[in-house]
């Protein structure tokens, strides 16, 4: 088995209140996420990103098709807790995810509910807080932390359950620039050093630049996918879908439109500098 | 309307072990019709500051003048001040509560005791500013709208009070790029047309670089830097050390200049960078 997640032709719909017709949020999604992959999902609000992510830990079950997580079908109710332990979720608002009044107790909440031995819990909490660089704050009250710190505590809470995969649904939407950086660096580190599969949903295109693969969703379907370079070179498609590209990619696109002979798949500052230096 | 803040200090829970100085001797002036970007890391005092500007919080010491009226003095009619200074909170869509878009936006003007005709014209005006089609949406439940639309309806509710100063606390947080651009474009047009004084609290350096006439930078309760965006973004190292950043193109310009390009260091937007790079390359060709 080399896939962490397999999503096979999934359809999902729900009724919006006082409307007779069912709204189809997912219309035949196929996606395979490899073990250890760093996948970014982008798409405008309402494109189906969050609905898709909630299928991966069985919060939603597909109307049609199937979702296999770590070899387990999400329709198999007897596997529900194993699935949720394999694939943990982090949401947008850190304040909605923190349950305890002390950081280390919050991180221990997951493993405690799983019935893990107290000794083992202590070990897991310590190493989870270390992994997100919050060990100094283990005795602090979460509400006094900054947004970025709270979000890292939320990630530690997931880590303490030893997941194989973490799904993050716009984890930086409410954070300031440094908080955003802290969280993204933490995610990248967990992916590289711990080999945890990452599925990151975001509206900040700069966060997608280092991913292994980017998937673009629109109207409940996957409309483009590829390396960040392949996806961001489709500036016009992304704009048409109401999405952004990183500022340097946009600048490179504008320069090319004005007649400069430069590559269209530029996604970092260094690449644009190099290209422009060659034109002199 | 102009705003003048003199030596504003605000302490939480004075006299307890939890006493904290949220605003520390803040002074600044905003001219009538200016567009101000207020930036600073989470917890730097931005939200506390703006809640003082319409009298929701009372300073521990210091004064605030709106035009020439001291709103921190005793006996001030705060109801009137709050009409003049409209405040749009973070996630304003959480405050939607009525059955229809019309009812929600008209709630404020109705409470002002205005007549039906005036209320209708204000609702029409406010919805047109935020780009929501009046005839199509007036009878729709606000809860059936998309996230971006909900937020724009909530902003319209504040606009319908016809404030002279509009303060928006992170109006684009959590929106997708299209929703974000729509709201920012609405605010930009509003400022152009009405010459309203606008204060935009934001975590996006790119957005304030595009929109604001002046920036105020908060750090640990103090306003440590202010000036035009170009002036403020010259302080790259200071801004980074206090948890902020500068627009990505600014880093690009710095790298290019290290390689011998001679671009203006004050470039902060994509279109400025584009023009400068094209000009520099053409000059060299000649």
Automatic annotation (TrEMBL), chain A:
InterPro entries: AAA+_ATPase, ABC_transporter-like_ATP-bd, ABC_transporter-like_CS, ABC_transpr_CbiO/EcfA_su, ECF_ABC_transporter_ATP-bd, EcfA_1, P-loop_NTPase. It is found in: Cell membrane. SMART domains: AAA. GO terms for molecular function: ATP binding; ATP hydrolysis activity; ATPase-coupled transmembrane transporter activity. Keywords: ATP-binding, Cell membrane, Membrane, Nucleotide-binding, Translocase, Transport. It is a peripheral membrane protein. SUPFAM superfamilies: P-loop containing nucleoside triphosphate hydrolases (SSF52540). The keyword Cell membrane applies. Pfam families: ABC_tran (PF00005). The keyword Cytoplasm does not apply. Belongs to the ABC transporter superfamily. This is Energy-coupling factor transport system ATP-binding protein. It comes from Caloramator proteoclasticus DSM 10124.
UniProtKB/TrEMBL annotation, chain B:
Keywords: ATP-binding, Cell membrane, Membrane, Nucleotide-binding, Translocase, Transport. It comes from the Bacteria. GO terms for molecular function: ATP binding; ATP hydrolysis activity; ATPase-coupled transmembrane transporter activity. The keyword Translocase applies. It is an enzyme of class 7 (translocase). It is found in: Cell membrane. Gene3D superfamilies: P-loop containing nucleotide triphosphate hydrolases. GO terms for cellular component: ATP-binding cassette (ABC) transporter complex. Residues 3-245 form the ABC transporter domain. Coiled coil: none annotated. Its EC number is 7.-.-.-. Its main location: membrane. Forms a stable energy-coupling factor (ECF) transporter complex composed of 2 membrane-embedded substrate-binding proteins (S component), 2 ATP-binding proteins (A component) and 2 transmembrane proteins (T component). ATP-binding (A) component of a common energy-coupling factor (ECF) ABC-transporter complex. PANTHER family: ENERGY-COUPLING FACTOR TRANSPORTER ATP-BINDING PROTEIN ECFA2 (PTHR43553:SF27), HEAVY METAL TRANSPORTER (PTHR43553). Belongs to the ABC transporter superfamily. Energy-coupling factor EcfA family. This is Energy-coupling factor transporter ATP-binding protein EcfA2. It comes from Caloramator proteoclasticus DSM 10124.
